Amino acid sequence: MADTTVLREGLRFGEGPRQGPDGRLFYSDFYAHEVRALDLATGDEEVVCTVPEQPSGLGWLPDGRLLVVSMRDRKVLRLDDGGLVEHADVNGIATFHANDMLVDAQGRAYVGNFGFDLHAAIAAGGEGPMLEPDWVPPGTPLALVQPDGAVTVAADDLKFPNGMGLLPDGRLVVAETLAFCLTSFAVADDGTLSGRQVWASLRDYGIAPDGIAVDADGGVWVAPALQPFAFRVEEGGEITRKVETSQICFAVAIVDDKLVCCTAPTSQPETVATAQLGKLEVFAL
Predict the structure, then answer these.
(1) Residue 150's pLDDT is what?
(2) pLDDT attached to residue 68
(3) Fewer beta carbons within 10 Å, N or C terminal of the chain?
(4) Domains: count for the chain
């Protein structure tokens, strides 16, 4: 029996959950092409914007304007009064679909990408080869988008850079899904990254980290992408909590005193793009 309570059903594939500046939960539904905002206290929900090329990561500029990753055309869009406009183009860096994103307090956005067509590879050969310890996935860069939209490479050769968070000491932690680890970087005043190290290796647990959320104590909640759980991990790899979800957990967010989990039976689009099997699940921390 799941530890969580199902808050919403009928999603296609929820991703990128974040607590917004107004306190609501914002999240993307990939195949509904919508960014939504949900008041956890009242249950009121609205569609914030529609992203034709599929929304993913979310964040906010210091003035409160929403940024959203447009996956298939590899862009970051900005929600202005007149609607969505292009904020940055990461086609020169991303080697496949753009994906999750973290926007810091200065308005700098770190944008990950698939690196290759993961869904096609799974459809052709299953997940088996990717679970072998000697399999080497393609590496891809992490993009850094400055508040004015200028784009540079933040880090090279990440193995499917996915969820990101800022630790209490200022380091950036990145989920490298296909390296089965969380990787940390020191962040300079200009947003550039250095001092790359493995913050937590998760391969022995079979955890391919997808979305993550950092708590106030510096622990990282991990959505494992292969299992119906959310895990809290500390630096070095110790798992300190485990929360069972009703189906596979692909993304997590901390909203006030609640852990919010985006779940689905699979990430394969041929299954979830039309069937409304996705859920939002919550757990009181």
Answers:
(1) 97
(2) 98
(3) N
(4) 1
The separation between the first and the last C-alpha atoms of the chain, rounded to the nearest angstrom, is 18
Has this prediction a pTM greater than 0.90? yes
Quick one: average pLDDT of 187-202? 97
Looking up tokens 């959505």 gives 223
Q: Which residues fall within 8 angstroms of residue 109, CB to CB, at 6 or more apart? A: 59, 67, 76, 88, 101, 102, 103, 143, 144, 145
Q: What span, in angstroms and rounded, lies between the C-alpha atoms of 265 and 267?
A: 7
Token digits for 146?
Answer: 């400055």
CA atoms within 13 A on the CB side of 193: 23
Domain containing residue 242: CATH number: 2.120.10.30
Strand partners of residue 239: 233
φ/ψ of 156, rounded to 5, equals -105, 160
Domain that holds residue 257: 5-284
- Cβ neighbours, 10 Å, residue 164: 27
